Every structure is written in C-alpha cells, then in structure tokens.
Predict the structure.
Amino acid sequence: MHPTIETFLAKLTALHQLEPRNLPNDVLHVMVSMSPEELFKTCTQMAVLLNNIPSQTEPITLSEEEIATLAEEYLKGILKRFR
C-alpha cells in the first residue's frame, strides 16, 4: 500500500472518513495515479474496512462476491468526486 494511504489509515478516527466523498485530496491523487489493478485492490481494501465490521456476537461474513460489489461501488464513489 502507498505510504500516503498508510498514513491516512493510521490517523483515522472514524469510519465515515473512509467513504470516498470524505477522502483527502492527497489520497485521491495517489489513487488516481495507480494502475487499474492497484486501484481495484485499494478500493477493495477500503471497502472491506468500511463495511466489514464484526460485532461482539457476529464474525466477519462478507463473501467474495459481496466484496467485489462493494469495491466497484467504492470506485464509483471515487469517480463521482471528479465529475
């Protein structure tokens, strides 16, 4: 993972900061410069962090299909920032 994104993740204080509309511009700049494969991997990681929160009684339960769908939606959210 890119150092800029790692620094951003290390400083997170709330989950809403992971939403595409709330990402800082330096993180967006890094993501836009990634290869398509790197970008999809990063979107997947961010989407899982944002949506795959276990509770005290329920374990993490996202399927591969759900993860792929969430990653696509995350990427669409990033693209909306550039419109």
The chain has a mean pLDDT of 90. Residues 7 and 40 are 19 Å apart (CA to CA).
